[in-house]
Amino acid sequence: MFSLTVREIASAVGAQNATDKWADVEISAVGFDTRKLFSGSLFVPLIGDNDGHAFIEKAIENGAKAAFWSRPLDEAPTEIPVIQVEDTLKALQALASYYLKKIHPKVIGITGSNGKTTTKDMTEAVVSSAYRVHKTQGNFNNHIGLPMTILEMPEDTEVIILEMGMNHADEIRVLSDLAEPDIAIITMIGESHIEYLGSRAGIADAKMEIISGLKPDGVLIYPGEEPLLEERVHSLVKEQLKTFGTTEKNDLYPLTIDAQMTETTFTTNAEPDLSITLPVLGTYNVTNALAALSAGLVLGISIEQAAPKLSVFQLTKNRTEWLTGIHESMILNDAYNANPTAMKLVLTNFSALPNTGRKIVVLGDMLELGQQSRELHKSIEEVLSAESIDQVFLYGNEMHVLYAALLGKFAEGHLHYFTGDKEPMIHQLKQLIQPKDHILIKSSLGTDLLTVVQELKV
């Protein structure tokens, strides 16, 4: 249970006004959305498209017991304590930093172009085999979500796992400096946000910002087969570096992998005789699990101790989940996020799965690829073969270049392209799908193929 007094909060954020009258008032939660407040909350009126100060009466009505305030004090309510600050967002972050130091858990920060959320979920499973754990919920992983995750941490938390997302340079630096991780994990370097960062090298620079706040004795866990990271880790000593990947050059790597429709089993060099089962599809998820297991090893958790928890870990919704589809089909829903590297990985794994029906893929635009968008969309052609995929449905303006590239590879009636209204594509899919078909649906969230998933699932 979160519990801070107004005195503590005012001191933590450097209040610009006197709060002695309210010093002993206890606050049990923090929130910025008036719809989600409850009795005992500190209201944080953030300023964005709307000014949160305008909703102070609603906040009080919904249980706010105190509030940050960056407008003139003569505009502030008088029935609850207000803590005047220059910037309410910075005050939120400062309060999170104070609370994190007060509870003093071990901190694991996770970033990467793909696999952040899955690795976070796996790391929670591994670490919970020995510690009380709190983690980022959903993808609440930005400059607002990360401090909120910290402030929602129970007071008995021993390890906190913080997902760190970004779109632009210097964003992860802010999050790392706030969190000061004991362990930092980079899952992979892909092409996400290349529109803003210019190149994969620029993306690697941005992801390496996670070591900005790394504790002096902290450890960086990263894919050892990524040259862009190998070139950038030299500011840390050897003892601070742990690698994972598919080959023997890494500290932790798989010896065997058996990927099935709903689970993947593997063994590692660290425990060759121990089979570890993941309740998810994909050889790429083995590398996510290796990152999680590496974090466990740093914390003194053996792979043998962690394996049972990994076998039952819960994947965040919309991350590569199997759903029952219409006409007794099965849908592999991966429509929450997409970049070229991730799309190729899931297509390769999907293509290799055994099944008695047909394989249908529905692929939507991958966003934020900038000037390289056409080239990167076209590159998906490498992993699409008429020998393993029966039907290909492409959606979105950016997918036209892939459609043109595939025209000679797929027979007439097996390659389909749509833009704009999704209903014609949904209608055609409903007419086409047969029992035992497997359907992969993958795109960036902004392309909104989740609408298609909703229409095709039972």
From TrEMBL:
Residue ranges constituting the Mur ligase N-terminal catalytic domain according to the UniProt record: 26-98
Catalytic activity of the protein: D-alanyl-D-alanine + UDP-N-acetyl-alpha-D-muramoyl-L-alanyl-gamma-D-glutamyl-meso-2,6-diaminopimelate + ATP = UDP-N-acetyl-alpha-D-muramoyl-L-alanyl-gamma-D-glutamyl-meso-2,6-diaminopimeloyl-D-alanyl-D-alanine + ADP + phosphate + H(+); UDP-N-acetyl-alpha-D-muramoyl-L-alanyl-gamma-D-glutamyl-L-lysine + D-alanyl-D-alanine + ATP = UDP-N-acetyl-alpha-D-muramoyl-L-alanyl-gamma-D-glutamyl-L-lysyl-D-alanyl-D-alanine + ADP + phosphate + H(+)
Domain Mur ligase central, chain residue ranges per copy: 110-295
Matching Pfam families: Mur_ligase (PF01225), Mur_ligase_C (PF02875), Mur_ligase_M (PF08245)
Keywords on record: ATP-binding, Cell cycle, Cell division, Cell shape, Cell wall biogenesis/degradation, Cytoplasm, Ligase, Nucleotide-binding, Peptidoglycan synthesis
Gene3D superfamilies in UniProt: Mur ligase, C-terminal domain, Mur-like, catalytic domain, MurE/MurF, N-terminal domain
Positions with a binding annotation for ATP: 112-118
EC number(s) from the headed UniProt entry: 6.3.2.10
UniProt-annotated location(s): Cytoplasm
Molecular-function GO terms, alphabetical: UDP-N-acetylmuramoyl-tripeptide-D-alanyl-D-alanine ligase activity
Biochemical pathway: Cell wall biogenesis; peptidoglycan biosynthesis
Enzyme class, spelled out: ligase
Domain called Mur ligase C-terminal: residue spans: 319-444
Similarity remark: Belongs to the MurCDEF family. MurF subfamily.
Summary of the function given for this chain in its UniProt record: Involved in cell wall formation. Catalyzes the final step in the synthesis of UDP-N-acetylmuramoyl-pentapeptide, the precursor of murein.
Matches recorded under NCBIfam families: murF
PANTHER family to which the protein is assigned, alphabetical: UDP-N-ACETYLMURAMOYL-TRIPEPTIDE--D-ALANYL-D-ALANINE LIGASE
Protein name: UDP-N-acetylmuramoyl-tripeptide--D-alanyl-D-alanine ligase
